[in-house]
Amino acid sequence: QLQASGGGLVQAGGSLRLSCVASGFTFDDSNIGWFRQVPGKEREGVSCMNSIDGGTYYAHSVQGRFTISSDNAKNTAYLQMNSLKPEDTAVYYCAADRGGRSRCSNLLSDYDYWGQGTQVTVSS
Predict the structure, then answer these.
(1) Which pLDDT score, from 0 to 100, does residue 99 have?
(2) How far apart are CA 25 and CA 86, in angstroms?
(3) Up-side HSE of residue 102: CA atoms within 13 Å toward CB?
């Protein structure tokens, strides 16, 4: 299971850090993904990290503002979000891919476990 937290209401330009705690498995052998979804739109990949070499991917819209990381000792993944914009408003989901892929993926179907989502609202 995955438990996401850390969402909230923040003004534009502010920061939030999302957390995702895993139970029943470990992140050190899982690729991690963060996705977001707004009503009426498909869930989109924001960032992912590969468990083997720590390689990361960021969507163009968040490049340079968001940072994905993990603390395997705490079995927790993070998404640090800086310089937030109103268009970042969405429900954010963490996900784990335990398929052993050599590169992390932005395909929803590649992920085996999903957190429940945490709302991020950025006011202008």
Answers:
(1) 87
(2) 34
(3) 0
